[in-house]
Amino acid sequence: MSVIDELFSSNPYSLSASRKNKLLVSELNELTSFHYSNCEPYNKILTNFGYKPKKRIKAIADFPFLPVRLFKTHKIQSIPDTEVLKVLTSSGTTSQVVSKIALNRETATYQVKALANIVTSFIGHKRYPMIIVDSDSILKNKSNLNARGAGLVGLSNFGRNHLYALDENMNLKKEELIAFAEKFGNEPVLIFGFTFMIWQYFLGECKKHGVNIKFPYGVLIHSGGWKKLIEISVSNKIFKSELSSYFWIDKIYNFYGMVEQVGSIYMECEHGYLHTPNYAEIIIRDYHDWSPLPHGKKGIIQTLSLLPRSYPGHSLLTEDIGHTVGTDNCRCGRKGTYFLVEGRIPKAEVRGCSDTHAESLTIFNQ
């Protein structure tokens, strides 16, 4: 059994910082060497920065990183085209160039296992009746999914009796939703969607049309950009309060992730902090000199993951700003680094699935 398969068989937040760092350094060295040998653009970049494949990197903060934007402008993969199982694209409006991430079977399998390992640690292994706050029309081509579609496919595996709550025009299926609530409302229900879409098309439309449904044993998982909600002064606290109050939902979890590292998601705990699993880590970089910053200092988020095997996405510099809060000492009991995301770097493109959908509506209506 490989190291990463062993990690999938245990609690994703079980390793202390010292044990995790040692494991990640070893595995990230192997990944860096593999991608250096099998991806020509990556080889050229690392060579220009003086990377020596025979010299082992000793600290997580010393691993070279690629800016996520590079995947928008270059074909960067470490496998031949004949081994590509599917291509994932980032969310974007019609005016944006999107990232294209080529997955082989090994990487796709690791991503599914990692997602299951993380999500089930929060909600358990039982599959619950599920509402997906989106339209199933986005899933027409599963071999070429964008980030939104990949999220729907990934999270749908944790539910049953799926109801896609929106039609292809983003209209709420009121009658179907009411029937679902009448059938399953008194048992645990899983609800998933992207943040802005849940706020506008689920909560907003239910209020507008007087759809009075309750899920007192419900679990809501959501993700995506917050840009549009912040613009209308809806904070994470307000979002949770309104959803919990209207639908009586007991548990609401946000998560942070990106298509360039699908599977390595960072779930929000009961105390409002995002957590790194055993097979991933984050570093906060000073945007002046790229040096790593201590807890509490705001900077640009770098993400590291053991999952990407088909492309060199194991160490990426994002376009997000945040800060780490601590390591191994969150009140929720989960070990590892925990952190907060505070927004996008100035002039960065809209990237979150919710935000890009909202942005596309703005462009369409101009």
Structural description of this entry:
The chain is of the alpha/beta class and 366 residues long. It has two domains: 3-76 and 266-344, Luciferase, domain 3 (Roll); 110-257, Rossmann fold. The chain is built from eleven helices and 15 strands. The protein has helices at 3-8, 17-38, 40-48, 70-73, 105-123, 147-156, 174-184, 195-209, 227-231, 236-247, 353-365, and strands at residues 66-67, 86-89, 100-103, 128-133, 144-146, 159-164, 189-194, 218-223, 251-256, 266-267, 274-275, 280-285, 299-305, 315-327, 337-344. Strands 1, 11, 12, 13, 14 and 15 form a six-stranded mixed β-sheet that branches. Strand 7 (189-194), helix 8 and strand 8 (218-223) form a beta-alpha-beta unit. Helix 2 packs across helix 3 (40-48). The longest helix has 22 residues, at 17-38. It is globular, with a radius of gyration of 20 Å. It starts with a helix and ends with a helix.
